[in-house]
Design a protein that fits this description.
The complex is a heterodimer of chains A (about 325) and B (about 270). Chain A is an alpha+beta fold and about 325 residues long. Chain A contains nine helices and twelve strands. In chain A, the strands form two sheets. An eight-stranded mixed sheet of chain A has the order 3-2-6-7-8-9-1-10. A four-stranded antiparallel sheet of chain A has the order 5-4-12-11, with no helix packed on it. In chain B, strands 10-9-8-7-11-12-15 form a seven-stranded mixed sheet, sandwiched between helices. A six-stranded antiparallel sheet of chain B has the order 4-3-6-1-2-5. A two-stranded antiparallel sheet of chain B has the order 13-14. The chains are: A alpha+beta (about 325), B alpha/beta (about 270).
């Protein structure tokens, strides 16, 4: 059993939980996207549809500084960038977004290695979601992906009020004073399906070709993906060629140069091998290692693709 | 980020190997005035990320085996390595590492080794051989089979003189002038003609992917099993800790799960 909140009181509620924190919510200005907003612009929040970019950028930014460079200082040319972090509240994201974080955790916040920024973001972000009933995009197929109920709070639109369920003690504390409500959170239903299976024996199946032939190697699929986390590390100098920085930046396995090594050898030269690499990483390799698929069924890679390449159609052909 | 701390080392030796290849020795830059140097613990087959501030990092294999210095054999083959070879004795070298798996030297004790290298691939193997020099009694016969493009491209000529005395050293070059007295031909030919059998042997191969592929085919014909063969994979390694994704093949991170693999364990991976 959860709680209930009158829609008219949402602004007040969000204002309260985001006090002293940054509020991140989907905002429609041209395109719908997650932005840091002031609660005074509450009316800009748009919960219709889901932003094409996931919340990944708030945990692993597209470009993020790692080191300050000072070439003039021969003794200490590198200085680590301190991670400064203001606590955040993410409102209006979806179950696929939050499940994406559980995947990113495996690499960016493992026992062995932690990405400082990611770790700080994870520890200081409150996750308040909106239940996807109805599914916000025709490309959604999360119903097939067995997502976990992972969130601090989940809101379900009931017309003039929200039914709210807590998924963590932190979330519970936030809604303690709200009115109890006897209701069951409806499950997400998607028209689109993915018939998941062990892909081992399908690597050389010709079904890959039809979708792959459309690929432009633009990398939109990976940049929009909720769980794609590959990055490059680069140095950049200012015009004085003394001061500069080392930063990490999203990279894409769909780019030709992704596997380029010194001397010019490229290990995945053809698009087909790169396409399969992406899908096998999502639906095979990651599961073998961590026991969960790396795909959350958000459908963003399909929707963002300029050619609407749909890997589910390939996999659903394997019977 | 991610505890990727850079440490300052100091170049203490620099030796030109070929036109664009230099052998560097680096020691940990002394912290304070302490005379007790912190011991290094790297193993043959592992690599370090070497830094040129403002340009980036390059993953370079260790080519020595010692606890007070590391040697790197660096070929100028890109923005970072072009600058690295300009470093001189006394200069600081910022590194992080060691990363990756190493050749399982202790497991190979008691065996006879066949060490096969092609071109700059001989560099990581030099670490293995330095280990064998130190623990010579732990190994049965040691065969070194090296191939280079030309006599001018041959690496570690001084070491070779010693290795020729204490090991079974055989070299070949792809091409050479008429006055060259050594063997001419591909490394596979050298392997084919070696007459070695697979009994109680371990094979360690390092070189370009195509050389590894055909060398293994030769070894198969000679009766070697894939469990006897260790190879070192080359891939793009940016982070070195299994995060950035560049070196991953079939879910295996070459930087962390490799670069040294027993061949039977990775031969069926999809690129």
């Amino acid at each position: 059993m959860g709680k209930v909140l009158d829609k008219k009181r949402l602004k007040e509620f969000l204002g309260k939980v985001s006090k002293g924190k940054e509020l991140i919510a989907p905002v429609k200005r041209g395109t719908l996207r997650f932005e840091i907003i002031n609660i005074n612009y509450f009316d800009d929040i748009c919960l219709e549809g889901r932003p094409l970019f996931s919340i990944k950028k708030f945990f692993s930014p597209a470009k993020h500084d790692l080191l300050k460079l000072n070439l003039a200082d021969k003794k200490k040319p590198f200085e680590e960038e301190k991670t400064r972090f203001k606590p955040r509240v993410i409102f209006g994201a979806r179950l696929c977004d939050f499940n994406g974080l559980l995947r990113l955790d495996k690499l960016f916040n493992s026992k062995e290695y932690q990405d400082d920024y990611y770790k700080a973001a994870r520890e200081n972000t409150l996750l308040i979601g909106i239940n996807c009933v109805p599914a916000p995009s025709k490309y959604c197929f999360c119903e097939s992906m067995g997502l976990e109920k992972y969130y601090d709070l989940m809101l379900h639109d009931m017309g003039n009020k929200y039914y709210i369920e807590a998924g963590s003690p932190k979330g519970e504390a936030l809604i303690m004073t709200l009115e109890d409500y006897d209701f069951v959170m409806p499950e997400i239903k998607c028209d689109k399906k993915l018939f998941r299976k062990d892909l081992t024996q399908y690597y050389d199946n010709p079904a890959w070709n039809s979708e792959n032939d459309k690929c432009l190697s633009c990398g939109k699929c990976t940049s929009h993906c909720t769980t794609c986390l590959c990055f490059d590390v680069m140095d950049e100098l200012e015009v004085d060629l003394k001061k500069g920085k080392r930063f990490k930046e999203w990279d894409s396995c769909q780019f030709l140069n992704f596997t380029l090594v010194a001397g010019g050898a490229i290990f995945r030269k053809d698009r087909l091998s790169r396409f399969k690499h992406r899908i096998y990483h999502k639906l095979q390799y990651f599961r073998e290692k961590f026991g969960m698929d790396m795909c959350t069924g958000c459908g963003r890679c399909i929707e963002a693709c300029p050619r609407l390449i749909d890997f589910t159609e390939v996999i659903n052909k394997f019977r | 980020m991610m505890s990727l701390n850079l440490e300052p080392f100091r170049i203490t030796r620099k030796e030109q190997m070929t036109g664009d290849i230099y052998l560097f020795r680096a020691e940990k830059a002394k912290a304070g005035k302490s005379k007790n140097k912190e011991k290094l613990s790297y193993q043959p087959g592992q690599f370090y990320q070497l830094n040129v501030p403002g340009l980036g990092e390059a993953p370079i294999s260790v080519c020595s085996y010692a606890d007070d210095y590391i040697e790197f054999n660096i070929r100028a083959l890109g923005d970072v390595t072009d600058e690295l070879i300009k470093l001189n004795v006394g200069d600081n070298l910022w590194v992080r590492g060691p990363y990756g798996t190493h050749y399982p030297m202790i497991d190979l004790h008691g065996k006879s080794l066949i060490i096969i290298g092609g071109g700059t691939g001989v560099a990581p193997l030099r670490g293995v051989i330095k280990y064998v020099e130190k623990y010579r009694a732990e190994f049965d016969r040691v065969h070194l089979l090296f191939g280079f493009k030309s006599p001018e491209e041959m690496l570690f000529k001084k070491d070779m003189e010693l290795w020729n005395r204490i090991f079974d050293l055989r070299t070949t070059v792809d091409k050479a002038g008429a006055d060259y007295k050594g063997k001419i031909g591909l490394i596979t030919k050298l392997v084919d003609e070696s007459g070695l059998d697979s009994k109680n042997k371990a094979v360690i191969i390092c070189g370009p992917p195509v050389m590894i592929k055909f060398t293994i085919q030769s070894l198969e014909k000679m009766g070697f099993s894939h469990e006897q063969i260790y190879i070192s994979h080359e891939r793009r390694m940016k982070c070195g800790v299994g995060m950035c994704g560049h070196c991953m093949i079939s879910g295996v991170y070459v930087c962390k799960d490799g670069p040294v693999f027993r061949y039977d364990q990775i031969k069926n991976l999809h690129e």
